[in-house]
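Lab notes, practical 5.
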Amino acid sequence: MLHNKSFVKKTKGGKVMKQVREHYLRDDIYCGASICKVCDTSGARLNGFASTIVVVDTNVVLSQIDLLENPAIDNVVLLSVVLEEVKNKNAAVYKRIRDLTSSPLRKFFVFSNEHHKDTYIKQMDGETKNDRNDRAIRVATQWYQTHLGSAASVLLITNDRENKRKATEEGICAETVESYVKSLGQQDLLDLLVLPASEDVDMEEVEDLRPSKRKVIYTEHKPISEITSGLHRGIYHQGKLRVNRYNPFEAYVGSESIGDEIIIYGRVNMNRAFDGDIVAVELLPQDQWHEEKSLSIAGEEEEEEEGEEEVHLVPSSADDAPRTVPQQGSAEANPVSARPSGRVVGIIKRNWHSYCGSLEPMAMPAGSGSGVHALFISKDRRIPKIRIYTYQLGNLLDKRIIVAVDSWESHSRYPSGHYVAVIGEIGDRDTESEVVLIENDINSKPFSSQVLACLPPLPWSISSEDLSNPIRQDLRNLCVFSVDPPGCKDIDDALHCTALPNGNFEVGVHIADVTNFVHPGTPLDNEASQRGTSVYLVERRIDMLPKPLTEDICSLRADVERLAFSVIWEMTPEAEIISTRYTKSVIKSSAALSYIEAQARMDDSRLMDSLTTDLRNMNSLAKKMRLRRIERGALTLASAEVKFQIDTETHDPLDVGMYQIREANQMVEEFMLAANVSVAQQILESFPFCSLLRRHPTPTREMLEPLLRTAAAVGLHLDVSSSKALADSLDRAVGDDPYFNKLIRILATRCMAQAVYFCSGDLSLSEFHHYGLAAPLYTHFTSPIRRYADVTVHRLLAASLGISKLPSVFQDRPQLTSIADNLNYRHRNAQMAGRASVELHTLIYFRNRPTDTEARIVKIRSNGFIVFVPKYGIEGPVYLTTRAEKESGEWYVDEQQQKIKKMDGSVTYSVLQSVTIHMEVVEPQPNPPKLQLSLI
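Output from the prediction step:
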């Protein structure tokens, strides 16, 4: 049956046009019930006699997705009208519900009610779209009742009172979510319920949960219409709220409208905003702006004592670095700059998701079987406590659990949420590692059967077709080798260096030809695109691609033939590039060396074999390339990379120390950088508007302010007018302390912006620059086994050479931008997960190893300082005073000189000074264990 749907559409020019679309209605759409006598049941997903068939409305899917994912909820009909609404309102929930409908383990059936001749309905005059969709849901439910008759019980689940009332009047069985869950007789399912905000418990009912009796009232959020108007008139400022990683009472909102960061002090001024929310901020009067000299370190005991007038500031990492920004016209009146301060007036976009943590210890209530209110403490200190209602308190008190936020009413001190799942026992290493993955949104699930079906059968070997393919050059005669960390199995790059008769060198970078096996649009490609990157934790690796590819088929292992994508240069002995060519190839690696092995070969003067000679020649070229790059202004920065020695059986850390960089590391890095630059030039020349590149924004003066202030305090002048000037300044920053220069470089690294992927069509050429590398163009090509960005670039390079067609995704600019955004998100999360894993294993290592060691002061605060421990790559606070002592004024902070002194002059501590500290793991309940640093 053909039905015409008409609607009006406004064009860009402002004209209103009527459009008519053909809408086909069918009578052969099956109901999906196995007991049906009319429909084809070969693809049936629903049981009839086993249990009630449930139809859910849109709001149930949007708000109760955690409940629907529980295996106890099954035999569910998802109407197409519901799926379409969910898709338009929440992409994340849509993906989760589609995963349920596609899982062979779950009985979720999608019924195309909008295309069935008996269930499709037209919108009536005066009827809103929402009311029409509610009516469509009721019509479809009634059709199921009539269609299946007495063979099955059909139930509509809705929390919409009006929809439920109309359903009952029309003879449809309808219940609320809560009543349905109670009828199942599984009390623990009640923990998963999201109660409507209007039914949220009043604060007076949970007075016992509040350590402080002080009533906290938040101002109501402004409506979006008022926010939009205020932003347009410059009254409000929009930005993402970033809560300080060490102190939940301090947050920053980067505002383009005033070109500065607005600092938000205290939960009252944050006004129920969460870390990552897009918020509207109103500036406070300038006499309420705070000064940098008020910075102090916040302790755990201060968490519940925060008040409207109190300020707790804390030192921070690169991502949270407080920045002093001089205010025009205020220099004479105030030598220490006041910082723009504000308050949140509205939430533009929420960033709520699930959080990991544990319940605050509390006494078990008398009796059994009744629910109880409890407070959840997130492992992430930036997240406020969350109030939940649970029927299983006894089972949850000693567990790490996942909780989701539902609402935060203006009269409630805490947000309300619900229990989602148990992760495991608090303190268990596997549990805490799983917390790291969940907190950073890392997908560690096994690859699906659809993904694995895309892989070639094992054992795999190069075929005669591969060797005879005209696009692929046979390079098996070359002495190719790889240099990687010890034990590396996912080897995606190899090198060769051959002396030419004319005195030049042929140098090749050979990269695993991953795109030969990962084809656009396949389940394997889609999964890799979503994962974005492999994640490296201390004790394990979470792959972007399945292990048969990462460790076998694509890995450039020694003595096996493998497919590669090669960049080959002719270079002079002075490392000047004469020519560049790109080719798909077949290689056979002669050796898979570790950095230590490669370095040992180069250093052993007795070795004169061809492999060692090639290594030395390559290292000589790399040194010249590196020197030339530094002369152009490339920065040589440093980071506190930590390396653990792990017990192979227990996976416990046996030793920990700073990661050592050798010449061999720098040699490989230099040629990977060169390959990435060459490929960036090639793809941009061929595809100027759809190339995937990587840029590193130039840091602003404000971003570099913490570095400049620290340097000035120790009599060091740093020129930051350009990357070249900064690089030269860092080279001159030497002192008596052999670690001084590295410490300055670490501080410089923390002032840098993040490098990001972008689509070349989204920015102007001047914005492509990579500040840290001093390169006008850069991309990622050399690690396609572990980064999806490189997979994308391989496809661009192949298309630029005429080897293959450019996939259709490159014609879709918004989708390309979306891919780049996801890659940046995944890359950032992988970094954070790696750091969190290091922190976890540091705790495990020092749990039974209290240690005295040397540290360097890196930040001065009014009640102590932050130290960096070079031997272990650890950073943390050292307190000089308690809160009461701080208020008594026993210590004085000299901001200009970056010193903290006792008022009687007996003791002084300065930035970058060496101190001896004691490190010990303490477990302050209910807070998680932490490494406590104290002055000896």
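Observations recorded by the TA: Confidence is low (pLDDT under 50) at residues 198-214, 300-336. The chain has five domains: 25-181, 224-349, 353-426, 449-694+773-830, 850-935.
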